[in-house]
Amino acid sequence: MRATGLRRLGAGPVAAAVVVAALLAGCAGGPDGSAAGAPASTAAELPAPAQRSPAGAPAKEGTQAAAAAPAEAGSDKADSDKAKSDKAHSDPASPGVVVNKRRPLSPQDFVPPKLVVPRVERTVAAERVRLRPDAAAAVEKMFAAAAADGVGLTLVSGYRSFDEQAATYNHWVGQYGDKAQADEVSARAGHSEHQTGLAFDIGQADGTCTLVLCFRDTEAARWTAKHAALYGFILRYPQGHHEVTGFSAESWHFRYVGPEIAAAMKAAGTATLEEHFGLPPAPGY
Ligand SMILES: [Zn+2]
C-alpha cells in the first residue's frame, strides 16, 4: 500500500509538495512548506468519511492519568503506578495517548471511530484536515477566539492514515537517500500522532512561514502558544526538547489532550507529554 496516499492526491508537483509538507510527521521544517499559504475556501461540513475499520475500542471515559503524578523511582508502588500510567497512555482512542518513536499506535493501523472536518479556514482538501469530533470542536473554538483577537489561523493538516504516513515517510527516505535523515523530519508509519485524529498543524492566514522554522515568529504562533491550553491543546514538539520527543521544535504542530491535561501541564510547567506522564524519552526508534 505504499505511496497510495500520494497517488490519491492526483495533483501537480506544487500541490503534491504542499501536501507532502503538510504530511510531515512531526512536519519539521519541510522545504516546501512556504508553498502551502494559498488561502482555502471556508470548510463546509462534509459527510462523514467512510471508515476503514470503525471497530476500534470505545474511548475510555475521562483520563484518570491526567491527575496521576509522575511515579517516583525506587519503590514497588512507583513501579506499579508507572505501569498503570504507561497503559493509560497506550490507548489510541484516549486523549491521553502518547505516540512517539518508541510508542507505536496499537493497533498500528488504528483508525479513529469518527472523523469530522472542522469548520475553519484551511489550506488543503477537507479530507486532509479531519480530526476527532472533540478535537475538531476545540479547533473551531480556538480559531474563533484567535479571529476575535485579530489573528487569522488556518488548518494545514490533520488526520493521516497509516498508509498516508507510510507514503510520506517513504517520500522522505527517497529524498534523502537514507532513513536516518528521513527520521528527523517524518515519523515512520504507525508512529505518527496525526494517525490518532488528535494532532494537527496550523498556519497563519497570510501563509507566512507555513511549516517552516520562521513560523515561530508569526503572530499565529505567538497567539496559539499563549492560548492553546485553554482549548485543550499542547504544543507537542516544543523548543529544546528534541531528545525527549524525537523531533525538532515545531511551532505549528498541536495536539489535543483535553483541557484537563493541558491545564495540568501548564500548571506543572512540563513541556512534553513524556515528561508529564513519567514516560521514557524517545529520541529514536
Ligand atoms: Zn504535525
Task: Furnish the topology, listing elements before pairings.
Blueprint: H1 4-9, H2 13-23, H3 76-88, H4 133-148, E1 153-157, H5 162-176, H6 179-185, E2 199-204, H7 219-227, E3 233-237, H8 242-245, E4 250-256, H9 259-268, H10 273-276
Antiparallel strand pairs: 1-2, 2-4, 3-4
The structure holds zinc ion.
* Total number of distinct structural domains: 1
Strand order across the largest sheet = 1-2-4-3
Distance between the termini: 22 Å
Helix content: 25-40%
What binds here, in terms of ligands, is:
zinc ion
Would you identify the regions where 5 or more consecutive residues have pLDDT less than 50? 1-23, 28-73
Question: What's the shape?
Answer: globular
> What's the number of extended β-strand segments?
4
CATH class type = Alpha Beta
How much strand content do the residues show? 5-15%
Describe the protein's architecture and organization.
- The chain is of the alpha+beta class and 285 residues long.
- The chain has a single domain, classed as Muramoyl-pentapeptide Carboxypeptidase, domain 2 (2-Layer Sandwich).
- It contains ten helices and four strands, in the order ααααβααβαβαβαα.
- The protein has helices at 4-9, 13-23, 76-88, 133-148, 162-176, 179-185, 219-227, 242-245, 259-268, 273-276; strands at residues 153-157, 199-204, 233-237, 250-256.
- The protein has a four-stranded antiparallel sheet, sandwiched between helices.
- α5 crosses α6 (179-185).
- The protein is globular, with a radius of gyration of 18 Å.
- Mean pLDDT is 79; it is low at 1-23 and 28-73.
- Bound molecules: zinc ion.
- Zinc ion is lined by residues 26-27, 157, 194, 199, 201, 253.
- The site of zinc ion has 7 residues, from β2.
